[in-house]
Specification:
The structure is a single chain. The protein contains 22 helices and 12 strands. It is mainly alpha-helical and about 775 residues long. It folds into 2 domains: about 170 residues, no CATH class; about 500 residues, Growth Hormone, Chain: A (Up-down Bundle), CATH 1.20.1250. The strands form 6 sheets. The chain has a two-stranded antiparallel sheet with strand order 1-3. It has a two-stranded antiparallel ribbon with strand order 2-4. A two-stranded antiparallel sheet has the order 5-6. It is globular and about 80 Å long. It comes from Puccinia triticina (isolate 1-1 / race 1 (BBBD)) (Brown leaf rust fungus). Keywords: Membrane, Transmembrane, Transmembrane helix. One of its GO terms (molecular function) is transmembrane transporter activity.
Amino acid sequence: MIKHRRSPGAALDQSSLGGAAGVEPEIDKVSELGVSESPSQCDLGRVNIRDCTALASGDPATPETVCRCKPVTTRPPAPEPICTTLETSPRRPQASPEPPSPTTTQHEPEIPSPMETSTKPAPASRTMYEGEDDAERRETAVGGSRRRAGQQRLEYTGLDDDGHPLNHVHPHTDPAEKSSPKQFGVLKMEAIIERLRARSSRWGVRSIYIAMYILSTITSTENNSLPLIEPYFLSLFGHHSSLATVGIMTNIAFAVGKPPMSKIMDVFGRAEGVLVAIILYLIGAILTASSTGVIQYGFGRTAAALGSQGLQLSQMIIVADTSSLTSRALLTSTITSPWIFTTWIGPVVGSWFLSKGAFGYRTIYLVFGLAVPLCASWLVLVLWMEWRKLNSEAGPPARRIALPTSDLDQEDQPGGLWSPPNSPNTILYNSRSSSTSLWSEAWEQLDSVGLVLLTLGFGLLLLPLTWSVKEPGVSWFTVTRCSFFIVGVIVLVCFGIYENKFAKFPVIPPRLVEQRTVLLGSAVCFWHFICQFTYESYFTSFLQVARFLSARDAQYVERSYLFTACVSAIICGLLVKWTRRYKIWLVVGILLHAVGTLLMVRSRKLDNPMIEIVISQVIGGFGGGFTTLASQLGVQAVVAHQDVGISTAVFLTITQIGGAVGSSLAGSIWTSRLETALSERLPASERGNIPKIVGDLRFALTYQGDKRTKINEAYVDVQRILNWLGVWALLPCLICALCMQNVDLDSKAVQAQPPEGRPPSSARG
């Protein structure tokens, strides 16, 4: 083993190859650790370099590079030896070399005969990629090293007992992952974080997180207040039974809105995406507050949901931009930590506006319609100011950043924050000559055709779910509903073909579809949300009618699930940071959620103590916090930084689809089964009021005595069915979690397949 100093970017002098003997060396594998400047230090005529590109300088004080050398054997030399620069990757894998001859010693290495040598000059040193052909070698990357799609960076860190190089997947890359060029929004955020790192500006990063904490506080207060108002607001129009329909519409908005929002953030920037979300939320709040019917109310809530999902997604992506994998779970959980106290504040706020009657119903939407955009504007301002400072320091106005497009050189910094690669040659330059080129490039990079196809396909698939709530007695297999499903599937198939064959910047890169952990992690939360939304959609109504709780107290009991989930998410983040593993905590979370859901089945009766209901909510929430956080981390852990945004969007999209399916099942079962249960229990004189009992919560609460008892029993029967559906939904959730790939978060390496012929050093999974 020999150690020597390297100079950044220095290349090996090809004139020195062969040394005194004039022998062209054979290089089996090339290390990425660096090269020597001095030709005298690379006398390859005497030794054969197997795992390094240079010999030692003799200076033991600067051991920056480690080399292992082997004696030269009599094998034919490689046709073209290539010494590479600092950002070097190996060429196409070749057959393993034969082991050294037993008669050969390190003191007397064999020298190839002159007939075996070549005098052809070696090509100039440059970066090599796996699978790269001659045409691709000649292509020049602008502004740094460019990795082409489909190429995988490997590193060779040593020799095995037989003298063969040990190749390992780079610790930031999954074996199945194919990289892609980074887009402007991603590079823009990397430049901002790099500037803050270079200046050791802790205040800049902290200001970003403070803005997100304030935004999370306001949005969590909103989410804990509005569910108290919604049943009474819809009852103004006589459409309390449309509560699930509105929930489905908002879940559809949450689902289909995330991929476009992720694309906007990747192409234009994080701040620009937050700004779009602010505008959508403000429009939705105004429409809701001024609504005169259930249709306008539904459209208003849908627009507000599009804005809310954009704000939620932006926070998740910014956390991923600024954190390492080991700290990401903990930081993500702290973003949702305001839910711990807003769970109790929200119902108080909601009940105060509820006491004001119809005027209060509308006013609360206006209050949050102003508060949320104002708080989100601070986050936009912080990001925009950092970008302006970066531009002023760089000189001319910038439109594109020519940063190295590699995602593989990330480093963990003190405090658990992520740092992009050191880029002393970072260049900011204006690449647009006209507004036409700007918009044409934006159209291409946004993949507008793909976004339209994806949104339309999901909409056609999910829209019939709302009809199942409005028309509970109608079969799911009508011509209209089947037509929507079939057309939706066809549109999604066309989307897949277009993305794979024609899109230059696909909304969902094919490499994500090939990554099983992304798909399985999304499936975990898909089934998890089906479980949660089936038993949660009408839970507050059940508590008010069947258990005689006030609206505020019912909200407290229902929100105990979210309170516990937020607390457990922080605990899960600490456990992940301590163990450097996520999968074990994902499985534990699903099992705890199953225990809580089974207890819900037992406690949803008329005579059970209220403490049993609360305990079941607490246990279920504890498991839910573990499940959602660990599954999201697993999805993000196997993708490159360019794909963090879209992978998070895909994860949250599939999650929200699960919520829409759960709400649809709950609404369909609640409406149909509740009418049946009431008709079986109430006297004939009250059967004409059954649609009103189902549709208006306030009317149901006016009943007393024996009739109220019959109504309560009907509520219990339907709620028990919903809870059993939730229990069964957790079975496929557990299966998907067990099949997910384990990830070593400490080294950011997926437990990859070992080189052929060698067993894995450690198999976890």
